[in-house]
Each structure stands twice: as C-alpha cells, then as structure tokens.
Amino acid sequence: MSQTQFHEFLRNIDKDPIRLLDEQFKSSDYIPIDLSTNNKQLQDIDVSSSEALDAYIFGHIKENDASIGYGGYNEIRGIYDRAENFKAEEGEEKRNIHLGMDIWAEAETKIYAPLEGRVHSYRNNGEFGDYGPTIILEHKMEEFVFYTLYGHLSLDSMEKMFVGKKIKQGKKIGKLGDSSVNGDYPPHLHLQIIRNIENYQGDYPGVCSQKNLEFYLDNCPDPNLLLKL
C-alpha cells in the first residue's frame, strides 16, 4: 500500500465531511488555529502555562464568532518545550513537530467515532504533557487496516472500554477532559491516523523530531483527509 493509495482511500471514504462532534456544530463553527513557532502572537504568550494558552486559544475562537478551533498537523510548536518527555536526549533532537489534528473545544464535549471500528487498546497516559486518557480504534475497510487515536479524553471515557469492543460509526467514544487529567493542556482532542501501529498499546508518538519526520508523515497522514474541515 503506497502513501498515495492510502491518502486517496481516506479522501474517498466519504465526499462529505465526516462527523466527529455533535451535529449541532456546523462548518461555520470551526476556525483554524496556528500554534506554530511562526505565529508571532504566541511570542507574547506564556505557552508553558495551560491557563495562558487556554485564554489565547478560546479567545481566538470567540473573536472569530466560532465554537471550535482546529489544526496543527505537521506543525512545529514551542508548547512542548516545558515537558521532559519531549526534550532531546543526548545525541538526539527534541520532539516538537505535531503529527495529528487538534480539535479545541470545551471540556466534556462529546466525541463520536468518525468510522466503524473496534477498540485496539486504551490507557491513561498520565504524565505531564502527555495524552492523558487515550483510546485507539482499529479499522478494517476494503483492503486497508489502519488505526485512529483519540487523546486528551476525560477519565470516564475509559470506564466501559474493553479491547475488541465494536464501535459503530457515529457512536460516542468519549468526552474531552480538562487540564487536570489531559496532560495539563486546554481541553482538546488529539486525533491521529496511524497506518502501522507497531507494538504500541494505548499510546503512539504524537510529536516527533525533524530527524524522524519523513517516517511519521508517511505513517500518520493528515486527519483532514477524513474530516474535510
């Protein structure tokens, strides 16, 4: 399966945007957010503070008469500099390139399965700066097998989960967690598509270094191929 074939498959699953949040949210409710190091507005924001970042993100959403912020795929970010698990080990580069799409919304916002699948694994990645509660679904469609990861959920999102549980398209997966459980971030969903999940269980790198970028972009295509935001 080539990268081009897989991208075309994802793009053609549905010609319309695939639902992830409540149907009450229309396309006009979404606004892109740039959290890259190129965003000069962030130079005046203490991005190590979840409160300061929350004020910036949700202020941006409100100023644009929107309800939901989105973006971040293949984005070089400075917000990871505060966490030990992203810092460079000796002889390595720091990890600061985001591999999924973030959906910024209020805590407790419900998340629905964009595609039918089954629960591959789940875990509370509770370290500072990590995903917090995370669920990974496995999807088998036509000749393709791939995975979607949902990070920064609420703790109760995992209460009735079990490996192998079937999840129909459009059924609730969970809810967004707040900063007390989601790795200390403003509430949001980290959505990531993964072609080969290797041996990971309940986790997969969502941020990489420049050195490994080519591999991860090939293995983790842009979720907007599905969402079409």
What would your notes on this structure say?
- The structure is a single chain.
- With 229 residues, the chain is of the alpha+beta class.
- The protein has four helices and 13 strands.
- It has helices spanning 3-12, 50-63, 213-219, 224-227; strands at residues 30-32, 68-71, 75-76, 97-98, 101-104, 110-112, 117-125, 132-141, 144-151, 166-167, 172-175, 188-194, 207-208.
- The strands form three sheets. Strands 1-2-5-12-9-8-7-10 form an eight-stranded mixed beta sheet, with helices on one face. Strands 3-4-13 form a three-stranded antiparallel beta sheet, with no helix packed on it. Strands 6-11 form a two-stranded antiparallel sheet.
- A hairpin with a 2-residue loop joins strand 8 (132-141) and strand 9 (144-151).
- The longest helix is centred in the N-terminal third of the chain and has 14 residues, at 50-63.
- It starts with a helix and ends with a helix.
- The mean pLDDT is 95.
Quick overview:
This protein is an alpha+beta fold. It has helices at residues 3-12, 50-63, 213-219, 224-227; strands at residues 30-32, 68-71, 75-76, 97-98, 101-104, 110-112, 117-125, 132-141, 144-151, 166-167, 172-175, 188-194, 207-208.
Could you give the topology of this structure?
Blueprint: H1 3-12, E1 30-32, H2 50-63, E2 68-71, E3 75-76, E4 97-98, E5 101-104, E6 110-112, E7 117-125, E8 132-141, E9 144-151, E10 166-167, E11 172-175, E12 188-194, E13 207-208, H3 213-219, H4 224-227
Parallel strand pairs: 1-2
Antiparallel strand pairs: 2-5, 3-4, 4-13, 5-12, 6-11, 7-8, 7-10, 8-9, 9-12
